[in-house]
């Protein structure tokens, strides 16, 4: 397994297991797929970039940037902002537990953007997460 897959699985488990998040977005609507229209509401586990941190001789640290796309059928951005706020709280709640062989050294919300869908029916939020994952095996 790669650090990217381990982090994505751990993050999804954290979000689905946090009542404040799953109360706004059912765990069955936290998906790793592209679908239009996205389920309402939904959190789509989106694009990801990983960079070898290379700061140690072992080279076991990977910096991961991951976008979460939040969709909600709403004319205002209030709904996606509420979901993003609960995601932020869930990420701050402590270390994200990863599968054996990986350790989440650090994780933070790097940025949030809120957009209106051109069709006017949905609002869209993009939450970018910055994580540092260490391979322990």
Keywords:
137 residues, alpha+beta, STM4215-like, 5-stranded mixed sheet, 24% helix, elongated
Return the structural class: alpha+beta
Name of the CATH class: Alpha Beta
Number of domains: 1
Gap between N and C termini, in Å?
11 Å
Major sheet strand order:
1-2-3-5-4
Q: H/E order of the elements?
A: HHEEEHEE
Q: What's the rounded overall pLDDT mean?
A: 91
Q: What is the percent of helical residues?
A: 10-25%
Major beta-sheet overview:
5 strands, mixed
Radius of gyration using CA atoms only: 15 Å
DSSP strand count: 5
Describe the structure.
- With 137 residues, the protein is of the alpha+beta class.
- It has a single domain (3-115), classed as STM4215-like.
- Helices cover 24% and strands 40% of the residues.
- The chain is built from three helices and five strands.
- The chain has helices at 3-16, 19-22, 78-92; strands at 30-31, 42-52, 61-73, 102-116, 122-135.
- A five-stranded mixed β-sheet has the order 1-2-3-5-4, covered by helices on one side.
- A hairpin with a 5-residue loop joins strand 4 and strand 5.
- The longest helix has 15 residues, at 78-92.
- The protein is elongated, with a radius of gyration of 15 Å.
- It starts with a helix and ends with a strand.
- The model has no long low-confidence stretch (mean pLDDT 91).
């Amino acid at each position: 397994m790669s650090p990217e897959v381990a982090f994505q699985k751990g993050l999804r488990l954290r979000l689905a297991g946090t009542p404040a998040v799953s109360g706004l977005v059912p765990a069955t609507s936290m998906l790793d797929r592209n679908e239009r229209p996205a389920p309402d509401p939904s959190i789509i586990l989106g694009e990801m970039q990983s960079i070898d941190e290379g700061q140690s001789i072992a080279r076991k640290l990977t910096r991961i940037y991951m976008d979460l796309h939040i969709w909600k059928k709403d004319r205002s951005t209030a709904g996606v902002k509420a979901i993003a706020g609960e995601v932020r709280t869930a990420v701050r709640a402590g270390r994200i537990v990863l599968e054996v062989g990986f350790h989440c050294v650090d994780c933070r919300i790097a940025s949030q953007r809120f957009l209106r869908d051109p069709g006017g029916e949905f609002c869209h939020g993009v939450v970018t997460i910055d994580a540092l994952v260490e391979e322990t095996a």
